[in-house]
Design brief:
The chain is an alpha/beta fold and 288 residues long. Helix content is 37%, strand content 18%. The chain has a domain of 198 residues: Rossmann fold. The strands form 4 sheets. The chain has a 7-stranded parallel β-sheet, sandwiched between helices. It has a two-stranded parallel ribbon with strand order 6-13.
Length: 288
């Protein structure tokens, strides 16, 4: 039987998964809200669809797998807002459904370690929306749901090098502040491993092995580029947008044992040093 992935909000992480599936003979259909992005999706081998705008009911009826990357808002999950009944009607027929959430659902733990069994106590508005969206998807009876809680995502086109080069990188210092991260290629391999070994109801943290202060990542990027470090700035007095400041509201170290133990995943980039080195080498290769 041919496999068909319907990817809602086919963004950065879903695009990294796409070639792994296409090489295995899958069909991949992805939604976007922008008509201007449909050509770019098609160029990657994805069949694009506008949402809202197209009737996706027949596609839901034929999909074997579903991936949800579209983020929630104050009114809830945008996919379920439009398509809950159709998805629920097919719940028992899907082989795998994946929902991309965030480690922000755990809230602040003062730099302490957390795992998938830690209580969900988000302190930000976006984190609270994610908790509600996870619950919405879980409430559909018979849906083979897998929840992936992603740490900060980086990868090609998403890293500190551009800011370091153009002089906008900052080293904001907040004592005991740490973030967990995940390279987009490792997200893709975890998703592929879960699809190959589904366990409905599973929750997985997606992060690397080395939670680290954000200023350390900037400093390492500067070292790799041979550029001077930007000055340290005290978080308490630094000028920051409310959005930027909100990222510092929570500090935690996220455990990733479950993706290794259950899915057999071996991270390609177990820390930011390996990931940044690979990104810079890939940039050099493209210039040749």
């Amino acid at each position: 039987m041919s496999k068909l992935l319907l990817s809602f909000g086919h963004g950065y992480s879903a695009r990294a998964l796409t070639p792994l599936l296409l090489s295995g003979g899958w069909q991949v259909h992805g939604t976007t809200r922008s008509a201007e992005k449909t050509a770019a999706l098609a160029a990657t081998g994805v069949t694009p669809h506008l949402m809202p705008g197209e009737d996706l009911a027949p596609l839901i009826d034929s999909a074997t797998h579903i991936l949800i990357s579209a983020g929630p808002d104050a009114e809830g999950d945008p996919v379920l807002r439009l398509l809950r009944d159709r998805i629920a009607a097919n719940a028992g027929r899907f082989q795998w459904v994946g929902y991309l959430s965030t480690t922000g659902v755990y809230g602040d733990h003062g730099g302490g370690w957390i795992d998938e069994d830690t209580a969900l106590t988000p302190s930000t508005r976006r984190g609270k929306w994610r908790v509600a969206a996870e619950a919405e998807w879980r409430a559909i009876p018979g849906l083979p749901l897998h929840i992936f809680r992603l740490a900060g995502i980086y990868g090609p086109g998403r890293g500190p090098f551009a800011k370091v080069r153009n002089g906008t990188a900052r080293r904001i210092i907040k004592p005991d502040q740490v973030f967990s991260r995940i390279h987009v290629e490792d997200i893709a391999q975890v998703l592929a491993a879960s699809i190959a070994r589904p366990r409905p109801g599973a929750v997985y943290n997606l992060c690397d092995d080395d939670p680290a202060p954000p200023q350390d990542v900037i400093a390492h990027a500067c070292t790799l580029l041979g550029m001077p470090l930007p000055p340290e700035e005290d978080f308490a007095t630094a000028e920051m947008t409310p959005m930027a400041r909100s990222f510092y509201a929570e500090s935690k170290r996220v455990k990733n044992d479950r993706i290794k133990d259950e899915l057999g995943v071996r991270l390609r980039y177990p820390d930011y040093r390996a990931g940044l080195k690979a990104l810079l080498e890939a940039e050099s290769d493209r210039r040749r």
